[in-house]
Amino acid sequence: xxxxxxxxxxxxxxxxxxxxxxxxxxxxxxxxxxxxxxxxxxxxxxxxxxxxxxxxxxxxxxxxxxxxxxxxxxxxxxxxxxxxxxxxxxxxxxxxxxxxxxxxxxxxxxxxxxxxxxxxxxxxxxxxxxxxxxxxxxxxxxxxxxxxxxxxxxxxxxxxxxxxxxxxxxxxxxxxxxxxxxxxxxxxxxxxxxxxxxxxxxxxxxxxxxxxxxxxxxxxxxxxxxxxxxxxxxxxxxxxxxxxxxxxxxxxxxxxxxxxxxxxxxxxxxxxxxxxxxxxxxxxxxxxxxxxxxxxxxxxxxxxxxxxxxxxxxxxxxxxxxxxxxxxxxxxxxxxxxxxxxxxxxxxxxxxxxxxxxxxxxxxxxxxxxxxxxxxxxxxxx
Length: 382
Description:
- By secondary structure, this protein is α/β, with parallel strands linked by helices.
- It folds into two domains: 3-154 and 356-376, 3-Layer(aba) Sandwich (Rossmann fold), CATH 3.40.50; 173-353, Rossmann fold, CATH 3.40.50.
- The chain contains 15 helices and 14 strands.
- The protein has a six-stranded parallel sheet, with helices on both faces. Strands 9-8-7-10-11-14 form a six-stranded parallel sheet, sandwiched between helices.
- Helix 9 (203-208) links the parallel strand 8 and strand 9.
- Helix 4 crosses helix 5 and helix 11 packs across helix 14 (336-353).
- The longest helix has 18 residues, at 336-353.
- It is elongated and about 65 Å long.
């Protein structure tokens, strides 16, 4: 039996990422399983009908479907590869091939229909999601040949680690990282005239859209290019806290930044979105500065592990609520010791629930499992 591992990167991109960055889960999975990595091919000229109509992930799925034989398992690191892979396996009548697929945002309407069809007529499939709300919404759609699993996301806690405590000083530094579904307009309005420095490392996407935000206060710095990992590591070290302002989307947007911040021992202020529930433990703060501690039992690792300690690793604010975001940041200014303890608790939580080692071990076990009935739908930490 061969295990093919399809990844959303070229071999050259992977080598560059590994030179000065954290470990990659797909590389570690290949080592743990003896799997064969199927990289995306480098960008080529768009000559020919096939190349004009398809992206690299579709051609990658076609290659995996072509190489797979009965008894093989094909792992896809996202539905953008997994969905066309299922279709190609049907077209090539590849019976006896198993597909294991990560799902990041499978509840988009244009993904749910093909999932409903392909998991009824395609090969045996295991769909793994990182958000419990994604699991609840997609479960009724899936066919009987598909098993649904929940698995918390991962971070390299060895790389994202520091002995430096959050900096002291009269002007705390807030760090915001990433571009996907970010609501930086709310953050910027919340920090106007506050005695904080804000660094937004959103890359070129948000740099091009700064005009839509309006005037930027002097205490906000936009970093126009994505930071190399060494510089991002230093930015986390220099931060008092990390802010992840999100649009209200039903998936785990922001999870990479949140887990990196927790692993670095920095408290997290994030939006209480529909999809971002499993990582941060903490209260919800509203615009009237009221603190709802009910979030401690509704969000964080206790969602998937009832034995998880009740510890505070940050706080939530309602999406798009400027007053609530400002209130949460103000609490940071008046209670620095409390926020340092949140950061320490975040580090402990990351090392207990979200390590790359635990993630890869769980994936390895799922790949090795005999496929259970879909109705079993195991949810929780393995």
